[in-house]
Amino acid sequence: MKRFENLKELLAEYKKLWSLQYAESLMGWDIETYMPEDDAMTRGEVISTFSEIKREIYQKLGKIIERYEGKEGLNDEERGILRVLGRDYKYYSKIPLEIIQQIERVRSEATVVWRQAKAKSDYSMFKPYLEKIKDLQIKIAEYWGYEDHPYNALLDLNEEGFSIRDGDRIFSRLLPELSDIMKKVSEKGYFPKSHELEEVSYDIGRMKVVNEEVIKILEMPKGKFRLDISAHPFTVRISADDVRITTRYEGKDFRSTLFSVVHECGHAIYELGIDRELEGTPIGGGVSMGIHEAQSRFWENIIGRSREFVSLIYPKLKQNLDFLSKYNEDDIYRYFNIVRPSFIRVDADEVTYNFHIAVRYEIEKRLIGGEIKVDEIPSLWSELMEKYLGITPKNDAEGALQDIHWTGGFGYFPAYTLGNVVSGIVYSKTPNLYNLLREGKIGEIKTIMTEKIYKYGATYSPKDLLRKTFGEEYNPEGLILYLRHKYLKS
Amino acid sequence: MKRFENLKELLAEYKKLWSLQYAESLMGWDIETYMPEDDAMTRGEVISTFSEIKREIYQKLGKIIERYEGKEGLNDEERGILRVLGRDYKYYSKIPLEIIQQIERVRSEATVVWRQAKAKSDYSMFKPYLEKIKDLQIKIAEYWGYEDHPYNALLDLNEEGFSIRDGDRIFSRLLPELSDIMKKVSEKGYFPKSHELEEVSYDIGRMKVVNEEVIKILEMPKGKFRLDISAHPFTVRISADDVRITTRYEGKDFRSTLFSVVHECGHAIYELGIDRELEGTPIGGGVSMGIHEAQSRFWENIIGRSREFVSLIYPKLKQNLDFLSKYNEDDIYRYFNIVRPSFIRVDADEVTYNFHIAVRYEIEKRLIGGEIKVDEIPSLWSELMEKYLGITPKNDAEGALQDIHWTGGFGYFPAYTLGNVVSGIVYSKTPNLYNLLREGKIGEIKTIMTEKIYKYGATYSPKDLLRKTFGEEYNPEGLILYLRHKYLKS
């Protein structure tokens, strides 16, 4: 933290915000890992009090930021700092506290109801909450401001600079290609529709050892990283020197925990690759969810599900999982790359995954645009699933109720497809990738990625970063190339 | 939190402080348990930034507190809140920031040097730091204010209301009695000077099970409590619904980890017994270190090392520790209650422990009073050890360098003896205690303690609490009675 001579006063005040966010990250991690359950309510109060303190600090920061407006001679990092803080400040200053508090309240109520509704597959239970959430999201869009369509505000809030124009362009190019690939994969038959290993149980103790070995192969730095267990896998960046991931052990189908570890390691590798000098500033973390998902999906899919990676980890798998004795590397590779249309997004493979996002994107866009009502979501869901994947969910639990995300609002899902698209760009612009991987040169792959993306943190907006590094924005051609090459050898 | 109508404004502002302290407690716990080691520096920065934020909040609180001065019609809790916050505010307002920062700096440097000095048993390395620490402590005493002797300020800072008059009175009555008991225990020979189990190794996995069983026997509430591992055992209260302890596994002499668990459970039982309604106020935690040590020592010694408790846990010990097959309950009881003069405070037994505190108390008093120089500490240490326990340390590692505490200042140690004294009062005022324990009625013992001490939190100052509940202050007669009864059956 020495290259920001122009922003000394701002960063001194920002340090308070930073320290609060640091503690919030740790509290968030602890909630999911070790917190005794009775403390949930109290922790909620603490976190909401933190919001109050942060709001006060933002007010001070806002005044300082205004003074920098139009200031010349700033370097890229300094401009990045003002951009990121400006967005945060805009959020706090444009959106009334009572709206944010309403959203928080509805979210926590809706989360409880969603669980029950999903368990009973009863959309009507969740519907009134979705109604409230939609109304609040439209208000947010109005306060935040947008061009053309209120959904653009929500997209921008979730992924800086992203809009319907980007989304439509991506999906209109991607979906027909994916349909074609899906059809041909099925015809070729090399990648299976199911695999007997999906039903095989594993010993959790042995699987923990496998995961530790995978972490070693991925060269995660011991002094800055740890793996714990939680109900839903996640990554949290506490600081540049403390990034933690979690996984879960379901007891069968060992792909699931293995690839959750590789996926979360991808997030962690990004955070750990950011220039250490940016720590303590608003640009010291990953720039956006889309760019983050690009890293996790790059490591999970493009690296982790590759034939080369199977060779790297195969000895450790065999050593620890006795039931693998009769499977060779190719068997494992095919098990890792089952391709089949399915109802549940989180279980989807690389080829079908983006259809799930397209379903949500279409629904959100039309809902926020007033073209459909909350009532109509399940039928539109079924219609789109039929159109894209040729299957129709038999109930709402495997349809519109499957994800928790809508309890928190709209505009979040598209970043998953952005992640896939950007990971495809990285693939297409890194010709030497699989040679390095074949030789186990994980460190070199990290170095390349660090130079292309990681080191900048949030210095540039997602689109600026992509333009600067790759000369293009959300171009889906790389992803198409990758999928065609991997699944069709063409 | 509903009985404080008079302090609404104060408590609204205090809530911010409370939420910061909550997060600090969690960060402190994490440092000792799960934090990746490279994050230590950054976490230090976060914690020091928290201090800045807290200082700002204290300034606001100070102004509100002043307005309440002389206000009538407050209830006991409200007066307690003003008392505790008034003390905290006095600390922040009377002691200049630069002194506090100097203390923090010297402490962190001294901690590093102390480790090296102790390893080399080289007092001269540590001496210049002790010199600085002494000078800073005398400054603190001047800023804080005192009657008669500057050490009184340090005692009061560490234990509200405690003074040299109390300390001298306790030790002058206690030490001759302890000498007499020590001599007679040795003559009687029932409690051994050493035991072969001290050298026996245990399996850590099995010992963890034993500790979990002990936690069950102590009826620790699963939803509000957890046990982890750290280099030095400790208890942390994160909230009324989240109290955590740690232990360590040294691999032999299983008393050590077992009694660290019982000791820390004692601290935790206190915190968990405080009236839930006080959470979120400044009186929601234990009132002082002395009263806290009274609880940990009550559970560790008066409960944990009793013949009755051995009977309660014996089946679980036998079940998990195979090497105990040839030992009966009486053997275990005697192993738990070895009595011998020794050099290291933390290894000392109930009979000799307070001599170790007396050594430190005398040295601190004379040093702060200007009667001795830092130079003279080792020789005075040896002299006092010889006088009290009849043994002379062969080097400073087993003398003045054994404890880390002086890196943080003076006046802390006496609270350990206060803890013993107060646990003795509790013993002498709870005639039914061992009958309840014999029947395993841990819950009833907790209820009695809750009514006597726990529920009040910090509502009353330590002395007021003792007077209110027991009609006396730091009277050592209970402790003497307890030790005579246990060790001499008289």
TrEMBL record, chains A, B:
Its EC number is 3.4.17.19. It catalyses: Release of a C-terminal amino acid with broad specificity, except for -Pro. The active site is at E264. Its cofactor is Zn(2+). It comes from the Archaea. Binds 1 zinc ion per subunit. GO terms for molecular function: metal ion binding; metallocarboxypeptidase activity. GO terms for biological process: proteolysis. It is an enzyme of class 3 (hydrolase). Keywords: Carboxypeptidase, Hydrolase, Metal-binding, Metalloprotease, Protease, Zinc. Zn(2+) binds at H263, H267, E293. The keyword Hydrolase applies. SUPFAM superfamilies: Metalloproteases ('zincins'), catalytic domain (SSF55486). Belongs to the peptidase M32 family. Broad specificity carboxypetidase that releases amino acids sequentially from the C-terminus, including neutral, aromatic, polar and basic residues. This is Metal-dependent carboxypeptidase. It comes from Sulfolobus acidocaldarius (strain ATCC 33909 / DSM 639 / JCM 8929 / NBRC 15157 / NCIMB 11770).
